[in-house]
Give the backbone structure.
Amino acid sequence: MKILTHNMLMCNVKGCDKGNFPLRIELSEPVSIQETEFNEDFARRLIGKVDWPALAETAAALGLYDKLGIPELPSTPPEAATADDALLKAMHRVLLEVQVIEGKLVCNNCGKAYSVSKGIPNMLLTQDEL
Amino acid sequence: MEYYDPAEDTHLLLDALNEDAERIRSIEPLFCVEIGCGSGVVIVELAKIAPGAVRFATDINPAALAATQRLAADSGVPVELVRTDLVAALETRLRGRVDVLVFNPPYVPTESSEVGTPDISAAWAGGFDGREVIDRLLPRLPALLADRALFYMVALQENRPKEIAETMRRMGFDSKVVLRRRAGGESLYVVRYSRTGAGGG
């Protein structure tokens, strides 16, 4: 599961609709880092689709700035047209090169823990959570 | 562990997506989603048709997700996998952002009790008129799909595709049969839905 995907996942327990994003990542195995090709246009298009406070919070919580040796990401969205190369590359690396393989995604509101196993988050709910 | 192997309906969907390849590329999709990815052949094919996109594939069956993960890795195509009901865990954040949505639903008319089990039968058991899962997705589409989105869905004659088209029309979508084929006594369709006036008709 890439950080981009984490940025798109929300707790979907019935009635849990405030403070249910972003889900807190609890790793049981270090993240895996895989280099992927950087595409500037693609990165610019992604800027407006990403939740920046969640991205910055998650990158800090996982220690990705040190791990990747990149500048800190802003917690407000940069301008897509004028974002500089260093920012775009840092965003690219966090969103697309970091993979959560084993761990949990925990809702800060209701406490529901979704497991991540072999890189796949299990967001299914039990009958009484629907 | 089992998942739905590519069958006639899968091949019809692959053919329809290739038939529509230029149209798909013309909207420059950023987010592509397949609901119920099964073996993964469809989302991997879509990756070849529209390479510059993020791809999400969902299924409730973990064997299907594992199969898609393997196929995507073998094909060198990144696909993000999420085990969820339809698009439940993604739909708030992907609101209005899904550019291409593909769904080969469980469309076989069955008893309602057979729908949505965590095993392989979830891949085909569609309940009353084969419509129970389809009808759960349709009302979510106006919020989920981007303005220029293309939505491709497989349907069987028994699902009453004209009635589906009418439901979609009331929600502001045009329908167009991309391909139709008879296979093993079934009449299969792949229908493309796009917002009225978005130039998809």
User: Anything to note?
Assistant: The first helix of chain B runs from residue 8 to 19. Chain B has a mean pLDDT of 95.
